[in-house]
Amino acid sequence: MQRIGAMRIVAAIIDGLIVGIAGGIVRFIITMVLGVGYAGVMVSGIVGAAIVLGYFYLEVLKGQAIGKQIFKFQITAQDGTPATKEQLTKRYLIKMVPTIISVVGAIVSFSAILAMLVNVVGGIAGLALLVFALMMLRANKLAYYDELAGTAVYGPGTMQAGFPVNMPGQTPPPPPSA
Length: 178
Known about the structure:
Layout: E1 2-3, H1 7-34, H2 38-56, H3 58-61, H4 66-71, E2 74-77, H5 85-95, H6 97-107, H7 112-134, H8 144-149, E3 151-155
Antiparallel strand pairs: 1-3, 2-3
């Protein structure tokens, strides 16, 4: 097993598509039933966030969401041993901060100014999470939330995963043997 870096982005895109389509359909139906008033915005926002939170809770229960399952990636402790529930929960909570903030935004949507302020904070948290995630492209292949939670993502095989990136002055790795 080896740590996975850039290929995690593909798994994350798959997860994003799954949860985005499912959440979008449910939110659309709720908005059609309840309208675009306070009740419709609040209920669709809370249900949409619940779908995201529930879907990614798979990473706590199994150490992988569907995107990672497809590629046989596993969230583990940094040394490759199984991660504890505490580590997985800490990682999950860090990753879900923007979603949790969106729940608050949905609840306070009765006030346009307050909802806008909460959404700005949520957007900043989302941008910070993106930066945290892109840190997986470093040599240690750890996203910042992995560092904070003591986790890593490992995958099968011995071939290098991700895009081949050589640092200046670094000799390229030998080609994989079949």
